[in-house]
């Protein structure tokens, strides 16, 4: 089974091709460059280099967020359209789960992948490996980094932090958790698209038409409107 | 076109997501609409009193593949029958445009179908070719929520903007005046309706600008309307909204029609093509019909309402011309919110 995996949810642009248990190709960059211009050419190049054409594909896997709204939408739009038009299954995987899987395979403890969400906030969740399978301990959510580390301190477990945005929050993490916190090494911070592909391989396909990114947050106008209209319909 | 094989039909798919409509259409041989699907988000944006870009982008992702599938079903053809995918690359809301552009690129890659990036206004103008064959030289009056332009075309696929708004677009002025009169969003059709029930009895300015200029300006008129409402309220008087709407509409249409008539004469065109969402305005339609009624040398073309508002058939129609002229976009095609219509020239 040949799978194309696409991750454009953050600065990292990741494309992978796997065939059953083999990673055939991976493309990763971690630069502030326009995903919209680069994703399709990257897919085209990688597939060409791997001697594959679109009709060889059996499944599409996409990182569904959280992350940059625009970034996630680019990947999800391409993935949905490819899966629909090639008439093959589509699976979505949490962008944070991919980060956790990219560094946490051999970690004995809980894994907190994170993306910076500005103003001291982070997108994060809790994951751990159980018999080689990545399982969710706490769903992805958005909160202040300082509130997150305070909650983790209570658990008294060793926590592996992963993500390219760690330098923004490592002071807060270290201060609250000390030796309880382990920071992933530099080469493991990028979400690996091959990990995304394998996580998606084992997931149930979604309904392509109704599949949407997991933004976590409502659009700002929407939450303001809900706030302003609270109780009006009661 | 001598070697063009006529027994093989050409189907162009159009994709349009520049604002708040997710649209896919299929046009046969450049002129015949065989599918025209538009998923409007207007109900969702109404509560905000205008289009919210982030929400528009989210809706596009929800609708994109559904609308694509509906269009293929409506046309009763398959992807392999499509000769090219034409997509709006700009101008418009960048996040919204990105959804259409990336969907188009995915289709192009998946099936090896050529891709053609189309300027949104070129699309609006080419809605006219779905009504009648275009004859050159032609002039197009483009009036929409974001545009007020006079575009001269010496031939297919060549666009020269000879006049444009220096501030608000006509549609924008309509929406702002509608808000002043507490009319629901979108305000344009409400003003048009009220105007027909009122008398243009209130004196409002007309911005002619310099002699011979084909540019427009509507911000002064908009301010005059707001001031009129304000002043009468302060005097404790009331104003008939119908009369104010009629006076406002009269001023807008007077400027639009007069400048258009002048441009058409100076450039000696054979056709005047009305384009854009405001072309749905009954007042504008009848004023143009009246102005061009006596002039039999110039054909006035006004597309039906569903081809005036944003749709993808117009993008496919413009895309067909570009495609047949050899225009191709590659997979690095990007959304360009400030795209110049001259991208289509020099081909
Ligand atoms: Zn438009």
TrEMBL record, chain A:
InterPro entries: ATPase_NBD, Gcp-like_dom, T6A_TsaB. GO terms for molecular function: transferase activity. SUPFAM superfamilies: Actin-like ATPase domain. GO terms for biological process: tRNA threonylcarbamoyladenosine modification. It comes from the Bacteria. Coiled coil: none annotated. Keywords: Transferase. Residues 27-225 form the Gcp-like domain. GO terms for cellular component: cytosol. The keyword Cell membrane does not apply. Pfam families: TsaD (PF00814). PANTHER family: TRNA N6-ADENOSINE THREONYLCARBAMOYLTRANSFERASE, TRNA THREONYLCARBAMOYLADENOSINE BIOSYNTHESIS PROTEIN TSAB. This is tRNA (Adenosine(37)-N6)-threonylcarbamoyltransferase complex dimerization subunit type 1 TsaB. It comes from Cytobacillus horneckiae.
């Amino acid at each position: 089974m040949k799978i194309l995996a696409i991750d454009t949810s953050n600065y990292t642009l990741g494309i992978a091709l796997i065939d059953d248990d083999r990673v055939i190709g991976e493309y990763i960059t971690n630069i502030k460059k326009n995903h919209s211009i680069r994703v399709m050419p990257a897919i085209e190049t990688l597939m060409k280099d791997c001697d594959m054409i679109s009709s060889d594909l059996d499944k599409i896997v996409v990182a569904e967020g959280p992350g940059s709204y625009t970034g996630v939408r680019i990947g999800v739009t391409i993935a949905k359209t490819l899966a629909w038009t090639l008439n093959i299954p589509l699976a979505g995987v949490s962008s944070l789960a991919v980060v956790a899987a990219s560094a946490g395979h051999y970690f004995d403890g809980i894994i907190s992948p994170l993306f910076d969400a500005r103003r001291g906030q982070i997108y994060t969740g809790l994951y751990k490996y159980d018999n080689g399978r990545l399982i969710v301990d706490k769903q992805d959510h958005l909160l202040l980094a300082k509130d997150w580390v305070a909650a983790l301190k209570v658990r008294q477990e060793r926590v592996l932090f992963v993500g390219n945005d760690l330098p923004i929050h490592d002071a807060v993490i270290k201060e609250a958790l000390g030796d309880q916190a382990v920071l992933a090494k530099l080469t493991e911070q990028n979400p690996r698209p091959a990990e995304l592909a394998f996580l998606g391989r084992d997931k149930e396909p979604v309904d392509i038409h109704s599949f949407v990114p997991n933004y976590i947050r409502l659009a700002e106008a929407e939450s303001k409107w809900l706030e302003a209209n609270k109780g009006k319909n009661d | 076109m001598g070697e063009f094989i006529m027994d093989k039909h050409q189907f162009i798919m159009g994709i349009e997501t520049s604002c708040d409509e997710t649209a896919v259409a299929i046009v046969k041989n450049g002129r015949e609409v065989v599918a025209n699907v538009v998923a409007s988000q207007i109900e969702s944006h109404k509560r905000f009193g205008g289009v919210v870009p982030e929400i528009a982008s989210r809706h596009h992702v929800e609708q994109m593949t559904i609308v694509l599938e509906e269009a293929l079903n409506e046309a009763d053809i398959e992807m392999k029958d499509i000769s090219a995918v034409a997509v709006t690359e700009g101008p418009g809301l960048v996040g919204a445009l990105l959804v259409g552009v990336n969907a188009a690129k995915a289709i192009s890659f998946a099936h090896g179908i050529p891709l053609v990036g189309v300027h949104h206004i070129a699309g609006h103008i080419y809605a006219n070719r779905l009504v009648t064959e275009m004859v050159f030289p032609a002039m197009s009056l483009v009036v929409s929520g974001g545009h007020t332009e006079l575009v001269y075309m010496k031939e297919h696929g060549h666009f020269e903007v000879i006049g444009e708004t220096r501030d608000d677009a006509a549609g924008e002025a309509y929406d702002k005046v509608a808000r002043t009169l507490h009319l629901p969003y979108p305000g344009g059709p409400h003003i048009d309706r009220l105007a027909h029930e009122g008398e243009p009895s209130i004196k409002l300015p007309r911005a002619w600008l310099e002699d011979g200029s084909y540019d427009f300006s509507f911000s002064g008129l908009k301010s005059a309307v707001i001031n009129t409402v304000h002043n009468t309220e302060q005097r404790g008087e009331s104003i008939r909204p119908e009369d104010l709407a009629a006076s406002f509409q009269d001023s807008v249409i007077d400027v639009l029609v007069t400048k258009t008539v002048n441009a058409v004469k100076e450039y000696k065109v054979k056709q005047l093509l009305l384009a854009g969402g405001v072309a749905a305005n009954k007042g504008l339609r009848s004023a143009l019909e009246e102005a061009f009624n006596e002039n039999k040398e110039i054909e006035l073309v006004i597309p039906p309402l569903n081809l005036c508002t944003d749709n993808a058939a117009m993008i496919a129609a413009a895309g067909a011309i570009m495609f047949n002229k050899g225009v191709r976009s590659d997979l690095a095609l990007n959304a360009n919110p400030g795209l110049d219509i001259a991208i289509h020239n020099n081909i």
